[in-house]
């Protein structure tokens, strides 16, 4: 009797695994088709300077518009795309598209592009960046590459050589989601970052601790000569708070949601001085 139950349980579990594997397989097939079907899109979120209130840049954020699933968030498909190696061609498309779009803007503001740790480890990364810059004609100084701690876990020498090669091209490097991983302080010392993006969790926290952390990171940035951006600001109270805490820039729903490329271009037209 016990054996029958055990077997029944096992079968049930097996069936569930099958369903999950099938869903994953279907997702994989769909991601593979996404580029060919032109289902990928970039939206752009403004980055605002806290002293001048001017839009000084945009972050390109990936969206997948799938016929069956609707708009799929990057959090839901990038991990699988990384696992099956597709993040490399997708990331290449993101770089090219973002650089081309930014090159057409009426103001020379910066464009931030997220790099997956898998892309960062890929031998063709430098080639891909150089090629996106060359074909778009974008000034390399306008391109900011955002990396997370996951990219820095490798051998320090290799990480440094990639970062230095990128900086030699003239692009800037931002540390994204700062404070959410491990050993962040040692990374600031080891690696040449141009910007620290303070993670949303601290910005929206509004506890004594999260306020102390934002203030400390802003101070750290100021003394190390690294610009700081507060991510995920949703209210005027949060905006005033991070202003007082000494961050340079803000990016969040309060100052602008991610928007279509045409809307980003219009926003820049509307605020240009001529
Ligand atoms: P991230 O790079 O930290 O991007 C910021 C995320 O916070 C975006 O989510 C943005 O829409 C969201 N956000 C901005 N302001 C606010 C706010 O005020 N409130 C709230 N609740 N959220 C806000 P999104 O677009 O869903 O992207 C999630 C993550 O996916 C990104 O986090 C990034 O790690 C990754 N990602 C997005 N696009 C790409 C890409 O092209 N390549 C790679 N490798 N990763 C990407
Ligand atoms: Mg980012
Ligand atoms: Mg972030
Ligand atoms: Mg994030």
Q: Which stretches are low in confidence, meaning pLDDT under 50 for 5 or more residues running?
A: none
Kindly name the structural category: alpha/beta
Q: For the CA atoms, what is the radius of gyration?
A: 21 Å
* Secondary structure: number of strands: 9
Report the span from N to C terminus. 83 Å
The helix content, as a percent range, equals 40-55%
Protein name: EAL domain-containing protein
Question: Topology of this protein?
Answer:
Layout: H1 2-34, E1 40-49, E2 55-66, E3 70-72, H2 74-83, H3 87-103, E4 110-114, H4 117-121, H5 125-136, E5 143-147, H6 156-169, E6 172-178, H7 184-190, E7 195-198, H8 200-203, H9 208-224, E8 227-231, H10 236-245, E9 249-251, H11 261-271
Parallel strand pairs: 2-4, 4-5, 5-6, 6-7, 7-8, 8-9
Antiparallel strand pairs: 1-2, 1-9, 2-3
Helix pairs in contact: 3-5
The protein binds ligand C2E and magnesium ion (3 copies).
Describe this structure in words.
The protein has 274 residues and is an alpha/beta fold. The protein contains eleven helices and nine strands. The chain has helices spanning 2-34, 74-83, 87-103, 117-121, 125-136, 156-169, 184-190, 200-203, 208-224, 236-245, 261-271; strands at residues 40-49, 55-66, 70-72, 110-114, 143-147, 172-178, 195-198, 227-231, 249-251. Helix 7 links the parallel strand 6 and strand 7. Helix 3 (87-103) runs parallel beside helix 5 (125-136). The longest helix is centred in the first third of the chain and has 33 residues, at 2-34. The protein is globular. The mean pLDDT is 92. The structure holds ligand C2E and magnesium ion (MG) (3 copies). One magnesium ion is lined by residues 59, 114, 146, 176.
